[in-house]
Amino acid sequence: MTSKALDTLLKExxxxxxxxxxxxxxxxxxxxxxxQNNKQKFWxxxxxxxxxxxxxxxxxEWTPPNAKWxxxxxxxxxxxxxxxxxxxxxxxxxxxxxxxxxxxxxxLTYQELHREVCQxxxxxxxxxxxxxxxxxxxxPMIPEAAIAMLACARIGAPHSVVFGxxxxxxLRDRINDSKSKIVITADGGWRKGSIVPLKANTDEALRETxxxxxxxxxxxxxxxxxxxxxxxxxxxxxxxxxxxxxEAEEMDSEDLLYLLYTSGTTGKPKGIVHTTGGYMTGVYATxxxxxxxKDSDIFWCSxxxxxxxGHSYVVxxxxxxxxxxxxxxxxxxxxxxxxxxxIIAKHRVxxxxxxxxxxxxxxxxxxELPQKHDMSSLRLLGTVGEPINPEAWIWYYEAxxxxxxxxxxxxxxxxxxxxxxxxxxxxxxxxxxxxxxxxPGIDADIVNEKGESVDAGYLxxxxxWPGMLRGIYGDPERYQKQYWSQYKNWYFTGDGAKxxxxxxxxxxxxxxxxxxxxxxxxxxxxxxxxxxxHKVVAEAAVIGKHHDIKENSxxxxxxxxxxxxxxxxxxxxxxxxxxxxxxxxxxxDEILFTxxxxxxxxxxxxxxxxxDIAEGRALGDTTTLxxxxxxxxFYVEGYTQR
Length: 642
Ligand code: ATP
Ligand code: MG
Description:
By secondary structure, the protein is an alpha/beta fold. The protein has 20 helices and 30 strands. Among the domains are: about 1-35 and about 420-515, Luciferase, Domain 3 (Luciferase, domain 3, Roll); about 520-640, ANL, C-terminal domain (GMP Synthetase, Chain A, domain 3, 2-Layer Sandwich), CATH 3.30.300.
């Protein structure tokens, strides 16, 4: 890592301290909270705030790489998300506010949510579903997605949510990997004014899924669909006669809660295993302190429930805290580029959590759009998913937060279950581009190959945390190899990071994305930030292409801002800009202009595909690619010949 260069590049001079007004109302404002002598006791404190049918005998059992939390404790996640609030005034409070892409809204109180979840849970039971049976959920962002997840958790049937934007092949593979008995889908969902044919995709997938017994179909759109007799059932038909109450299954703390496949940015998706008690505790704690969530807040996390962010911070985290969570079905740019801002204004959202990729695309549309809307209700912003470049951070802070909302840049993974590195907004001084410091109770470090603590190296977690993955489904070997083979007893995140003088963590992207140029290690993110720093560049993705002498040559794929034309002069100018910002060692050998970059469905750039393209190889796993035409266009436009 050319860490001197990073210093200059990532150093946005300004830092942002919590304002007295924010501190005054913050849930957590005690700096001493970081002095945790006993991390297990720290987490136990949060577990005690939740409901357990039977208390645990022991907090942790750790036989690396297998952790068990809250041994012999019995609880139920859905009971904690809903029933716990029914004996309080929150019974009539909005649990979920939903907005469909066409603009209709639906609000469910905690009492109503309880009824819907219980009725659907009873319907699942009536179909013979028992504790331990896996269920695949392939739905658009409609209330039924949350209801289905909560119903599964209520009866102890682990769910595997598959993002509604995935193709039938991806759905088929995930169903087969999890051996689900039921798939829950819809006739369709709205996306950018078109219907996503979820039922048709499901039918296609089900040609090769021997484990599936039944298909439950929500009528979202009312479009024509084909129903297979005996196998396919309508949600409303099976729910309407069910009793309003369904007892919550007493789950062991270590019982399987859900499976979720990772985004596949670095390779074939992995089926990540999460269990009940520890996950619940970690998600509850981080939502409470990091999002500073209050009874009066409307919380909007724009992630799809198909991602871990949607699990932990659209559904479970806010409901565990008795908050109001907003679900939006559709695209951020439909019918216009300001849809998100109009939702914030309309529902008077207080806390907004989104991804850097979304922020960068909003930047492209300009500041005028958010200015058209009254977003004065916002008091806290968050980001997740990728490192956020300081330029985007500042734009988010100014244009969306009106210089008045702290931004929590939260680092975590599907594997970690909940946020591990993040500011606490009432305590932490913010530095644009840094996820700041580990959450109290989290033992994160940056180490070199030998395991020594260093200022630039690999991010590891040195002791277990409650929401950590318990394995890769059906593949203990890959689990061991992927996360536990690099260091003895430490969790290897696969991300590179740098630590500054104040101990702040700066995430540098994936270790796989580090380039080696003539003996120097340069992170792709570093060169990308230098490129994005140029006024004409909207987005950049950089890869190291194999080079016989230098080991890697630097290839940059660049998208330009609206109305900017590419030219040889511009290529030189951009190369020189990188030299000016980092040094001649980082000068890109090639710059390729492109209208789009290949991204995962969650909006992350798939550099491994760009590497395949640049080196003229057959593409690796593309099942998680958002738009398969993007890579096809690369070939059509002849990039492989270069
Ligand atoms: P796969 O593991 O299948 O390649 P993925 O890693 O993209 O997919 P996720 O679990 O969705 O799947 O993403 C976690 C990764 O996202 C982290 O390892 C990190 O690289 C990146 N990330 C998440 N949040 C942040 C953040 N705040 N700052 C920097 N990077 C982040
Ligand atoms: Mg990953």
